[in-house]
Amino acid sequence: KNQVEQSPQSLIILEGKNCTLQCNYTVSPFSNLRWYKQDTGRGPVSLTIMTFSENTKSNGRYTATLDADTKQSSLHITASQLSDSASYICVVSGNNAGNMLTFGGGTRLMVKP
Amino acid sequence: ETGVTQTPRHLVMGMTNKKSLKCEQHLGHNAMYWYKQSAKKPLELMFVYNFKEQTENNSVPSRFSPECPNSSHLFLHLHTLQPEDSALYLCASSQETGIRNQPQHFGDGTRLSIL
Q1: What is the pLDDT of residue A91?
Q2: Given pLDDT bands bounded at 50, 70 and 90, which one contains residue A97?
Q3: Chain A residues within 8 A (CB-CB) of chain B?
Q4: SS in 3 state form for A51-106?
Q5: B61: burial class by Cβ within 10 Å (0-12, 13-18, 19+)?
Q6: Residue B22 to residues B28, B36, B67, B82: CA-CA distances in angstroms?
């Protein structure tokens, strides 16, 4: 069964600090992995996508990594800001005919001043 | 502004009411999706439409009835709902379901509460 597990479920950090969110998946065959940010009261917005051949990709202060061998991804946030407070959702796409997505449960990040 | 607009943003209804959720996308996409997001649970895919044709019904109870009159509009008709149906209902769109590596663009959802 395809699954995506995220850790931690929730995280509180001080403004200016760094943090790393984890995503483990069992989706096979694998096509790509995407990180979404969901602000409170809003829909998810795509931050970055990782394909099989990519190990790391940055989007401003967000850096995603992918290890396709161990089926793990991480999202590193540098110099956190109050506006980073949100849920971060890891979504894996399978390389099959339906191309359906498997969603993780998300990590709820709170950045405190 | 994501290009996907959902109305209403909030809805409170009784179990015997009939209501509809509306989704409109201005991105020229051909695929549209309904998701249910409950607290502390992953997003659950409900329905998928590709070029106005329903391609996925993820074992959703018949009290939820989708309608896709054209590629830009998607409705979710609700009737005789249960308290456990209270959740955030998200609409999304993408270029089409067969293209990989494309993001889904989400609306801001309708927060539904069943009394």
Answers
A1: 95
A2: low
A3: 4, 9, 31-32, 34, 41-46, 49, 51, 89, 93, 95, 98-101, 103-106
A4: ECCCCEEEECCEEEEEECCCCEEEEEECCCCHHHCEEEEEEEEECCCCCCEEECCC
A5: exposed
A6: 17, 14, 10, 20
Asked if B101 has any chain A CB less than 8 Å from its own CB, the reply is yes
Query: Could you tell me if B90 lies within 8 Å of chain A, comparing CB atoms?
Result: yes
In which region does residue B9 sit, left (phi positive, over 0), alpha (psi from -120 to 50) or beta (all else)?
Answer: alpha
B59 touches chain A (CB under 8 A): no
Tokens of A1: 């069964």
Least CB–CB distance from A32: residue in B42, B100, B105: B100
What number of C-beta contacts closer than 8 Å exist between A and B?
Answer: 50
Give me the count of residues in chain B. 115
Structure tokens at B72: 């830009």
* Average pLDDT of span B101-108: 90
Average pLDDT for residues B71-78, to the nearest whole number? Answer: 96
pLDDT, position B16: 87
Mean pLDDT of A21-28: 94
Return the residue of B nearest to A39 by Cα: B108
Distance CA(B114)–CA(A65), nearest Å, equals 41
